[in-house]
Amino acid sequence: MSEQQRFRLGVMWSGDRDTRRSATAQNNRLSGMFAALAEQGIATEPAVYSDDFVDEVRAQLRRLDGVLVWVDPITDGRNRSVLDVMLRNVAARGVWVSTHPDVTLKMGVKEVLHRTKHLGWGTDTQLYRDAGALHAQFPPRLQTAGPRVLKQNRGNGGQGVWKVEAVGDGIVRVLHARRGSVPEDLKLGDFLRRCETYFDNASCVIDQPFQPRLPEGMIRCYMAGDRVAGFGHQLIKALIPPPPEGPHSPEAQPGPRIMHPADAPAFQALRAKMEAEWTPQMMQVLDIDERSLPVLWDADFLYGPRTAAGDDTYVLCEINVSSVIPFPDQVPAAVARLVPGRLQAWRQRR
Description:
Oligomer: single chain
Shape: globular
Largest sheet: 6 strands, antiparallel
Radius of gyration: 21 Å
Low-confidence stretches: none
Number of strands: 17
Number of helices: 10
Helix content: 25-40%
Mean pLDDT: 94
CATH class of the largest domain: Alpha Beta
């Protein structure tokens, strides 16, 4: 029996008691990941998670060698605070966790946009540590720099992400990035007070310039460790005012995410930057070594201003490490090739 055949790995996603009871390697959105891991000779099992049965999942993980985690930062009003405590607990007892909560708090939060703004993917990104700083510093910046995008530190699905545009006399037009949202005009002070809850639990708010090329779409760069595993391009509708037909009309819905392999010609400039420059630089800034880098993560880019030569530039708008799905067909094999080495390195370090 080979070394990797002695590894036992859990694959975790959110679900209720019935989902946990009925889960198999084949009846879920991650079935391709299960199959790719099996081809590497790794024994896998579902580890469906909910805060309601966290102790049961903890006991399951403690008898495994590792776990791959797909759980959103915010789901149905719940965050990952209970889950992260449990994952730290099992990691301390020798279970390999990808992505470890400590790494998530470095990479998978909007603060990474500020910490890495000096890299080639950065822009004029500001950070507010408390409501006082937001109220004092954001209004003059909005007046001089044009439309901005405010982002709460941790979220998904557009939650806590707002386009803010001054329309005169202390009034701003705001648009939430959540699907179905419509523009709203209100006093700037009232809107900023609405954002004060984003500072709960010593969090922060990130402020970036609105990117005018947003209608050209978002490029999702899927990473298996420090290598590009594929791309997704999508014409998004978030932060774009809905058409006259309304926010729920077909015209207001985002386009499909078109998946591409890592060698897709249209994205080779971005791939070269990610692999040779931006990912190594990010790891250095965030103090993340290769063994701790998630086996699957993605970086979402918008098109920035074109260069004088007409070439595209790219602006990072988010890094996702909590629940990267869906993904291109090539991703499971790329991830599965990484996992045995990560498990072996973890076992030797223990």
